[in-house]
């Protein structure tokens, strides 16, 4: 059996008096039957569980620019009925099968309909449905207002400089070529050696 780390065998640190008094007052005012020690244990356990959950990668479905977390519901109205789907894990599930929003719209309505315009979305914890197309437009508008990070700005500047240098080199090469052609046109044409002898009487 591996012995416990010495630090783990020590009693828990004592809370500052102000925090302990606030905890006792809350337990009393809320009518809780927990003792301060029991409340502390539950708080630490809840904190550990939440930290572990936060460390897990978020699950959901990425539809172009929009991320739909697990639990998101989607629906479409076709004549007088609603066609519903949900994000389960990393998939959009419609009628028991994993589909794309386009496939959902095609199956529910047929070809020629825009999924962004037809599908409505309800995110977890929200009360109101929102049109997918409007959500995308709002997201793109928000992203456009976010200033680039220093690294992104440097990347854009470096690309612009590279493009400008490439254009300049192309123009220089073209100018050199034009100058060479002009020079060749101004020089006397090459003549065969026998063509340069004086005419014989």
Summarize this, please?
The protein is α+β, with helices and mostly antiparallel strands and 201 residues long. The protein contains six helices and eight strands, in the order ααββββββααββαα.
Layout: helices, strands, pairs:
Elements lengths: L16 H14 L5 H20 L4 E4 L2 E4 L3 E6 L2 E8 L2 E4 L2 E3 L1 H8 L6 H4 L1 E3 L7 E2 H14 L4 H37 L15
Walk me through this protein's architecture.
The protein is an alpha+beta fold and 201 residues long. It has 3 domains: 14-49, no CATH class; 61-145; 147-179. The chain contains 6 helices and 8 strands; from the N terminus they run H-H-E-E-E-E-E-E-H-H-E-E-H-H. The strands form 2 sheets. It has a 6-stranded antiparallel beta sheet with strand order 6-5-4-3-7-8. Strand 1 and strand 2 form a beta hairpin.
Proportion of helical residues: 40-55%
**Poorly predicted tracts of residues:** 4-10
Number of domains: 3
Terminal residue distance = 124 Å
Can you tell me the overall shape?
A: flat
Strand composition percent: 15-25%
| Coarse structural class | alpha+beta
Computed over alpha carbons, the radius of gyration is: 37 Å
Major β-sheet, in short? 6 strands, antiparallel
SSE order, as H and E? HHEEEEEEHHEEHH
Strand order of the largest sheet: 6-5-4-3-7-8
Assembly state of the chains shown: single chain
Q: Kindly state the mean pLDDT as a whole number?
A: 79
The DSSP helix count reads 6
How many β-strands, per DSSP?
8
